[in-house]
Amino acid sequence: MYRIAVIPGDGTGPEQVREGLKVLAAIAKKFNFAYETVEFDYGGERFLKTGEVLPPDAVDELKTFDAIYLGAIGHPDVKPGILEKGILLTLRFALDQYVNLRPVKLFPGVECPLKGKGPEDIDFVVVRENTEGLYTGSGGFLKKGTPDEVAIQTSINTRKGVERCIRFAFEYCRKRNKAKKVTLCGKTNVLTYAFNLWERVFHEVGQEYPDIERDYAHVDAICMWMVKNPEWFDVIVTDNMFGDIITDLGAMIQGGMGIAAGGNINPEGVSMFEPIGGSAPKYTGKNVINPLAAVMSMAMLLEHLGENAASQAVEEAVKLACANNLKSMAAGRMGYSTSEVGDLIVGYLGG
Ligand code: IPM
Ligand code: MN
Domain with 144 in it: what CATH number? Predict the structure, then answer.
């Protein structure tokens, strides 16, 4: 019996999560496993009502689940940063979800903005460090509000944090068993402390994986190659900030935020799965948002639980819907409503 915590969150998050849970119900029946869900109301509405981002026992309670399924965090009436830091980043950090795993995979039938590139060219995974770098909130102001103001934001890179992320990337690459290549995405020519550490650890750990090719590219060049030659990539490993940026680019070349999914992974703890896109408040309640990113997050969650066949079946169903039905991945232009897309997937699962 799996226990899954559900945080629908803000904006279109709840609509997306609803379809993901619809798919979960169908797949559980088909593959004969039992689960229960417990819903948590964390998000903008709760904050506006109570003044609290997360209750004090939230993290301890979430730790008791097998996985967390998240919609989206971000509310137009809440100042940017409060919910992102107070909920999303707090959970990633407190649950020590040290890898943000973001597959970039173009499915047949999905429109790609890159001329001449198809599904055979776009199939790689970004392993983004998820608990360190520029995201720790380390820094401060000097002489704030004066003409001499100084703002400092420090990138924290620990040996332990870098090593466990890089090791995850090599392990994942081996398990994935495709091109068997890990590319370190850095900036060794300028960030000569942080990425010197990354580079040393990359080669040190990489030596334990003689079956896997080691490759390096600066982050700016990665942006270029992701557009020009995405087929070069198998697994990309990088720090938190670079990973954030290149996975938005990755989402675009796989068809957009409507389909891009990710997992915040703690291999020894509780992991959290979410669409890469935000809460898209302008589409809230209109039944037009594309739920496939949430459905693909559910596929990742299932794989994480060890339900590999179920995960694979969901992915196949999404592929069929992309190839046969959806006109576009964009909100309002799919040719189907949000709930109809969920029904399509359930239909392809034989439900
Ligand atoms: C993401 C988002 C978050 C991040 C924001 C909302 C804090 O952009 O999941 O990529 O920067 O990690
Ligand atoms: Mn982002």
Answer: 3.40.718.10
